[in-house]
Design goal:
Length: 365
Amino acid sequence: HGRKYKSWKLAHIITLFIHIINSILIYLAFGHNTVSFLAAILFSVNPINNQGSIWISGKGYSTNTLCALLMWMFPAWSVIPYLFGTYFSGASLVFFPLIFLFTKHWYLAFLVIWGMSREWGRIFNKTDPQSKFNTESNVELLARKPRKLIIFFKSYAYYFVNAISARILGFYHQYLFLHGVNAEENRKSYKLDGYFWLGILLLGLTLYTSEVGLLWFFISIMIWCNFMTFNQTLANRYIYMANIGLMLTLAKILIHLPILAIIIITYYITKLLFFIVFYKNEYWSIEYALFEQPDFFYLWQNRGVYCFQNNNYHGALGNFNKANELRPNDWKILYNICQIYLLLGNLKVAKDYYEQASKCNIDGR
């Protein structure tokens, strides 16, 4: 399974090797023809896949993608990779059997019952202190109610757009980041916007056409569309498996537009080459993320934490102040500023920031 590393280089080779296998299987699984070849190329170099193809800790998502491709290629044996993936590599494979509803192997969709029964225990077991239910204290993120469909469609469309555009490649996304923090942020999260309407349109198009690539994308991504949220609201590692379907659909269009296909592939490769510095060290991961989203307060906070860890307290204070400018009245930012002033010996100002922080609550905590 590769959870124990004796060599970081070997760990990266394994991660990349799984990505290479997945790219080859895309070509084989969807007809080993010109369209599937183009889809494989698009998937292999799309920089949005970086958390499955480069990031060592994202290997579970690429492993489950390998299982999904094997299920699609060998449906008679699909129970084996499904049991393996859901047992060893987490929840990303759980809903995948639903894609068989649109094939002659429709009965395989019932595998979801087994996958859900396993995940149900890991998520909702109130007696297990490590269950998601007990480790996530935010009330709004755990709530199951009709208005969460707004967040669902917004997340679905955001993933769709970002998978094609490869616009935000870092670990954190400003969009919906503060969902669940408090009533004011929830009001913003539930506001209807272009992503919401696009999400409804995309689902309608997917069901109307029953196009396999669009179905693959929707079924693979819907588990991460925040009807219930336990980790990050949005993350690129969630896109990895779903992106196979989207690249297949894109390939079917681009096969008739070869010049545009070359332009998009060149764009993906160029952006990927520039992005690789993100994984060089922690400094560059923070700097690249700030280059992508310079107005995102959380990235300035991360920059401040990095300065703090390296004993650069004045640098940390400057970055926390920038975060505070972008997002006033955030308890974590204010509390961090308080700590810096304590270290610098300014107890009066530290006390002022502590008192401000004590008034800024997060719902459920």
